Amino acid sequence: MTAQIDRPTVDTVGHAAQTPEVDQPWAALGLKADEYASIREIIGRRPTSAELAMYSVMWSEHCSYKSSKVHFSLWGENTTDEMREKLLVGIGENAGVVDIGDGWAVTFKVESHNHPSYVEPYQGAATGVGGIIRDIMSMGARPIAIMDPLRFGNLNHPDTQRVLPGVVAGVGGYGNCIGLPNIGGEVVFDDCYQGNPLVNALCVGAMRIEDIHLAKASGVGNKVILFGAKTGGDGIGGVSVLASETFDAGGPTKRPAVQVGDPFAEKVLIECCLDLYAAHVVDGIQDLGGAGLSCATSELASNGDGGMQIELDRVPLRDASLRPEEILMSESQERMMAVVEPGKLDEFMAITDRWDVEATVLGEVTDGDHLVITWHGEVIVDVPPRSVAHEGPTYHRPLERPAYLDDLQANGTDTLGRPVDGNGLKSDLLTLLASPNLCDKSWVTDQYDRYVLGNTALAMPDDAGVVRVDEETGRGVAVSTDCNSRFAKLDPYTGAQLALAESYRNVATAGATPLAVTDCLNFGSPEDPGVMWQFRESVKGIAEGCKTLGIPVTGGNVSFYNQTGDIAIHPTPVIGVLGVMDDVSRRTPSGWKTAGQVIYLLGMTRNELAGGEWAHVVHGHLGGLPPAVDLGAEQLLGEILVNASRDGLVDAAHDLSDGGLAIALAEAAMRYGVGARIWLDELCERDAIDAFTALYSESTARVIVSVPRSEEVRFTDMCTARGQVHARIGVVDDETDGLDVQGQFTVSLADLREAHTGTLAAVFGG
Amino acid sequence: MKVGVVTFPGSLDDRDAARAVRAVGAEAVTLWHGDADLKGVDAVILPGGFSYGDYLRCGAIARFAPVMDALIPAAQGGLPVIGICNGFQVLCESHLLPGALIRNDHRKFNCVDQRLVVENTQTAWTSDFEVGQEITIVLKNGEGGFVADEPTLDRLEGEGRVVFRYAGDNPNGSYRKIAGITNERGNIVGLMPHPEHAVEEGYGPSTDGLPFFTSVLKAVVNA
Amino acid sequence: MGHVVIDVMLKPEILDPQGQAVGGALPRLGFEQFTEVRQGKRFVLTVDGEVTDEHLAAAAEAAEKLLSNPVIEDVVSVRAEDPDQ
Amino acid sequence: MGHVVIDVMLKPEILDPQGQAVGGALPRLGFEQFTEVRQGKRFVLTVDGEVTDEHLAAAAEAAEKLLSNPVIEDVVSVRAEDPDQ
Ligand SMILES: Nc1ncnc2c1ncn2[C@@H]1O[C@H](COP(=O)(O)OP(=O)(O)O)[C@@H](O)[C@H]1O
Ligand SMILES: [Mg+2]
């Protein structure tokens, strides 16, 4: 069939050398004049159209991090040797890897697929999940769980009804079909995401330490193999255009072909890769994600010690009419590239055959230092691979603290009308429970399989997802993702640290020792100095916060241009923290079960309502300074929670965050339908606050725990000995229907549930 | 005592099914879709998942896998076989069980801890339950709506071949709230919910799935 | 290159949740004139050269065997593609 | 009672995992003659009385607006149902 198609003449290297004056569409491909000039300088002639395609996608914001890179020195500067101890693979690879003990390694990473998910919610979200899974696979790991931090515009906006159900169905459609438990995520609504929803996806994988694989092409004569799906015209230019283009209201957008995911193909690819790793036939491996073959070939070659030669016409095509530039840029999903010793080629092919996975030798590692790509025998690319993959442009974009910040921070919450009696406190509780950000999310999370693989020990709606890694010992990991972007809007440095603190606390609440961090930095346009300042502040906040907590950032992703017209989203640095447990069967759930257990509130409560849910929901207010961060207190609290879990001192623990104590109490009661009597007087006296502040403040470093009577003395002794602030605020009580907040109000379980459930179903249908 | 677990491309709960088999002290044997060979097993589990992506109809393509050429006659001959979720769909597509499974009436994938009532304890897979017993195991699928024509439904009811019925609200629009059925002989059982996700304390909603696997051990020993 | 088109619909007595959902959405968009919607599948099979009677017979057999489940679905047509479509 | 039939197919350049799965299964069942399979959707909309031009126009509009996603799909036909089908 291919033979019948007339091949248009291609732009060869020889031709390019002789025709320096040819006018090239570098601007349409998103390159700046000086970037084009520097490509010409690097290769000493004009680029061929294939080279231009490669440089343009690889030098896009999405692939080259050209606006953010200069700030990444903050990661390294804030990572101490001690933090590096458990870090087996750090920033710079497809995903970071940490040592969780007993010879096990875990890799995890969060990535964005925001813009594609706005254009085609189902496929955008699905391929977002597929992409991050391949990153994890490429480290040599078996993927073991996924999470999906999501942000949408106003719940009642008609476009949210287009976007949300599609995104959720896409995350579920891909994750369920590929057989990975979804163990958590976020569903947040805010008007700032109306024209620019955020679809982030996180994947966790596990392997034995000796099985770690890296993306590098070494060993002259080793074969370079493309395997998986055929290459089609999917998302050509998508990575550079889609990820970098803002959606101006009404304006024309470049709409490249949308990628369609095939989770079945990826499931087969996972099993096939694991068989390949087990047979030790893979020398280097790289997934094909954004920028497709351009990225995989140049990164593999750049990370290796030689050059690489590729015959591009060997690539199996779904569409025989694709031109070489298009093949290089195609973002067809479910493909991987491996580097294999010639002697192991047959075994490699036998394994791919068994899984019905198509595998094609495209070329080999050479002793040169160039990446050379031919098309039917003619050289169309001849470049130093580092210049494509790693030496793209770097911008020192101007930064400036936004002028509006002073007014915003001055506009605090003290003037907002507060409830004056128990009835008012109760009605605010019910209002908050029914609000979009605090309501029951099972309309979303019930669409995700949280049980597949049989290792899930904790998932939605608990504070962290917990999965077993080693079936013999029960060793496993806990992961949580968090970010309150209103805090980050008020103060990006503090806001980013608050996200880190919350995620850290959630992992500890489940009983795990926090170990490592991944982040997905969702921001507006880097060309806006105010946004760039927010970005810098956030990175600094995370990096310095991680140093204080002693846990390294192992990888992540930057997503810029999240804005509609000139209006950027709130800065949204989503933080994922991973913790380890020697036996996940001792994980601490968030709900009360046993009557008679004593409820303690750990941590201090201050008058901190700015940026919180109460101000947002009840008053539609955003202003003031976010809650103070105290990472030392978080660390101490984490140690208390982990020790308490290990020694069996607590049966339930629930983190206090959005909506404060009131919401945490209601959730703990609703979880298993067991109520409690609560008293606030001593707490109010100790912290010099009123009942309203006790219930709705969002002060950090706080958790409620339920302690069996038999352990109460040991528990309080431990707190006292370590200086952990604690207050006895109630008792789990199956005689109480719901919550009895003494002296203030009582609210039945039925009323709590009626408020809490149904908000999403009312909008999206039952 | 060997229980085979079939792996089709796209099977997902095969590892879980094997774990459940081991949990009751039996040996789990992997059966590959491409081999028309049952390796001498005493019973077979068709696990959950999305065989071949379930892109056409669930179970439709898996039904033609070589392993089914061996399994279909063996099942007809009395070999205990259970189809869980996608496995149930494969059994229906193979006409080893009547009816079919269609998209949930609410059109969404749904993962919940589901209550079921056990109605038939005469099958190879349910003898360790009590009639009328209520159990809670995981239900998770997008196409779990059991349908059949009225005469077939009446026959299933009349012959006591409805093995499990959903308790509480109908989770997916299944006709007559049917969650699982058996063949005339009682050796083949298909159900949408997942007993293999309820065999270990701490990793699922209950351990109500264990009797499925202990039952079949007895059925094999007594056969 | 020829094409055989095969149409498969759920039997009328089988519940069609997808068709129902579309049927429910149409009036909200201002389309009041449709009293019912059913959703089925359409397969397009490509053959080398013209579509022959053998192709059609094979397609009909594939339609019965694989592309439809007779318990719930009907094959409503198997035909060479109308060139004007 | 009349029927309007709407056919929607994925655009040719868009990956069709469903059609691919069927295309992969056919040879295993002995059908070797089909070089490609694409799977699409077929909607049957019922109207009271005969199908009029207004019905067809409304159906065509509904097809563009709701029944297909123009980013990945084409509406390949909107027609009154052939009475012989
Ligand atoms: N916000 C961030 N924080 C830390 N590391 C980051 C961040 N963004 C990107 N990285 C790291 O930079 C490297 C390149 O990122 P990316 O291009 O997303 O990887 P990939 O090509 O695998 O998708 C990765 O190691 C990634 O973890
Ligand atoms: Mg990668």
UniProtKB/TrEMBL annotation, chain A:
UniProt-annotated location(s): Cytoplasm
Enzyme class: ligase
A Gene Ontology term for the protein's cellular component: cytoplasm
Main location class: cytoplasm
Residues noted as binding ATP in the record, renumbered to the chain: 65, 109, 519, 556
EC code(s) of this entry: 6.3.5.3
Keyword Ribonucleoprotein: no
Keyword field: ATP-binding, Cytoplasm, Ligase, Magnesium, Metal-binding, Nucleotide-binding, Purine biosynthesis
Domain PurM-like N-terminal: 92-207, 462-581
Domain PurM-like C-terminal stretches: 220-375, 595-736
A GO biological process held by the record: 'de novo' IMP biosynthetic process
Matches recorded under SUPFAM superfamilies: PurM C-terminal domain-like, PurM N-terminal domain-like
Family matches, as InterPro entries: PRibForGlyAmidine_synth_PurL (IPR010074), PurL_linker (IPR041609), PurM-like_C_dom (IPR010918), PurM-like_C_sf (IPR036676), PurM-like_N (IPR016188), PurM-like_N_sf (IPR036921)
Family the UniProt entry places it in: Belongs to the FGAMS family.
Matches recorded under PANTHER family: PHOSPHORIBOSYLFORMYLGLYCINAMIDINE SYNTHASE SUBUNIT PURL
Quaternary context: Monomer. Part of the FGAM synthase complex composed of 1 PurL, 1 PurQ and 2 PurS subunits.
NCBIfam families recorded: FGAM_synth_II, PRK01213.1
Function: Part of the phosphoribosylformylglycinamidine synthase complex involved in the purines biosynthetic pathway. Catalyzes the ATP-dependent conversion of formylglycinamide ribonucleotide (FGAR) and glutamine to yield formylglycinamidine ribonucleotide (FGAM) and glutamate. The FGAM synthase complex is composed of three subunits. PurQ produces an ammonia molecule by converting glutamine to glutamate. PurL transfers the ammonia molecule to FGAR to form FGAM in an ATP-dependent manner.
Identification of the protein by name: Phosphoribosylformylglycinamidine synthase subunit PurL
Automatic annotation (TrEMBL), chain B:
GO biological process: 'de novo' IMP biosynthetic process
Catalytic activity: N(2)-formyl-N(1)-(5-phospho-beta-D-ribosyl)glycinamide + L-glutamine + ATP + H2O = 2-formamido-N(1)-(5-O-phospho-beta-D-ribosyl)acetamidine + L-glutamate + ADP + phosphate + H(+); L-glutamine + H2O = L-glutamate + NH4(+)
Residues the record marks as active site: 85, 194, 196
InterPro entries from the UniProt entry: Class_I_gatase-like, PRibForGlyAmidine_synth_PurQ
Primary location class: cytoplasm
EC number(s) from the headed UniProt entry: 6.3.5.3, 3.5.1.2
Name this polypeptide is given: Phosphoribosylformylglycinamidine synthase subunit PurQ
Source species: Pedococcus bigeumensis
Lineage, opening ranks: Bacteria, Bacillati, Actinomycetota, Actinomycetes, Micrococcales
Name of the gene this protein is made from: purQ
Automatic annotation (TrEMBL), chains C, D:
Organism: Pedococcus bigeumensis
GO cellular component: cytoplasm
GO terms under biological process: 'de novo' IMP biosynthetic process
Pfam families: PurS
Protein name (Swiss-Prot/TrEMBL): Phosphoribosylformylglycinamidine synthase subunit PurS
Membrane-traversing stretches: none
Biological role stated in the UniProt entry: Part of the phosphoribosylformylglycinamidine synthase complex involved in the purines biosynthetic pathway. Catalyzes the ATP-dependent conversion of formylglycinamide ribonucleotide (FGAR) and glutamine to yield formylglycinamidine ribonucleotide (FGAM) and glutamate. The FGAM synthase complex is composed of three subunits. PurQ produces an ammonia molecule by converting glutamine to glutamate. PurL transfers the ammonia molecule to FGAR to form FGAM in an ATP-dependent manner.
Subcellular location: Cytoplasm
EC number, UniProt record: 6.3.5.3
Entry keyword annotation includes Translocase: no
Keywords: ATP-binding, Cytoplasm, Ligase, Nucleotide-binding, Purine biosynthesis
Gene Ontology MF annotations: ATP binding; phosphoribosylformylglycinamidine synthase activity
Superkingdom of the organism of origin: Bacteria
Principal subcellular localisation of the protein: cytoplasm
Reactions accelerated catalytically: N(2)-formyl-N(1)-(5-phospho-beta-D-ribosyl)glycinamide + L-glutamine + ATP + H2O = 2-formamido-N(1)-(5-O-phospho-beta-D-ribosyl)acetamidine + L-glutamate + ADP + phosphate + H(+)
Pathway: Purine metabolism; IMP biosynthesis via de novo pathway; 5-amino-1-(5-phospho-D-ribosyl)imidazole from N(2)-formyl-N(1)-(5-phospho-D-ribosyl)glycinamide: step 1/2
